[in-house]
Amino acid sequence: MSPEEEVITLNLSTLTHEFSGIPALLDQGSQASFVSEHIVQLLGLKRTNVNGKVSCLGDGHLNIKHAVNIEIESRYEPVGKVCVNAYVLKSLTSLLPSREVCIPDWLELKTLPLADPEFSSPGKVDMLLGADVYGEILQNGVKKSPHGNLLAQNTLFGWILSGKIEQESVKENILNLHVQVREDELLKKFWEIENEPNSIEKRLTEEEKLCEKLYEETTLRRKDGRFVVRLPFKTIDPQCQYGQSYDIAINKLLSLEKRLSKNPTLSNEYHRVLEEYTTLNHMKQTLAVLEKDKFPVAAHITKNDYYVDDLMTGCETETEALQIYEEMTELMNTGGFELQKWSSSNQRFVNYICEVSDNRK
């Protein structure tokens, strides 16, 4: 037993549930209170999202994501209640005590209403009460054993024991918890991310500014709907005199597609990066914006239901599916894009697409 850690038994209650005999660890060395995931689910407690870390010995730490409010009361004084804000952890400690201990030879101890009458037997701890509530539960009354090795302290939940009990030498587990919710740091990072798109222009080099200007002044759309964009060349090689790069670029692209098809993990990561470019406005879905008045349904689907170059959408009726197919085909054709490899759970819809494709050939 440690002078700063005592196991007690509590009654817990919420608006809809009451449970008695919940073991808790009283630890004034902890800056916050904690509760196990098991108790949170058992009581059906409402969680509050938090972002913090629990620091422990050896420079270790655990991330915490939720906190709950619990009302606890003593089996001896039900009118005395304490509200606790506790952070949720998957588990708190191993069995406490770690092994069966001998009940001390102290006659007065038998007359005291103990916070945990079964303190000598190992048991699971589902809640830890830290220094944030320690002062609230202490009451007047302190007793010391005749040998001076044990101390009994009166609390709202009954008498708690601390001190040393003579037993065989064993390795002791020491628990110390520290929590820090980094709200200021999190908020700072949030604002930095929010402001980043507005500060991109300020960080552009002269060469990058020339690229922006080239795209703005030379990008056009042909009569067949295709977009034409002039590529910028560095001044050291304006005419690409060191060789043609078109065939090399095509081979690189085909090699990349082949590699991604064989590695789903790499493919997902590649697609995630492209999605991030879209989120940061480094890429835009231009065709859907220009043709939204002419093809409203297809424009909406293009903006919301594409995963990189794969369209994944759905509808409730076969008629709607045919409308989507026709509009999407026409919209993409205006930009010179041909949709291929259609698939559906409706076989008649698939047959219709195959028939249309054969007629076009």
From TrEMBL:
PANTHER family: GAG-LIKE PROTEIN, PHD-TYPE DOMAIN-CONTAINING PROTEIN
Protein name: Peptidase aspartic putative domain-containing protein
Annotated source species: Euphydryas editha
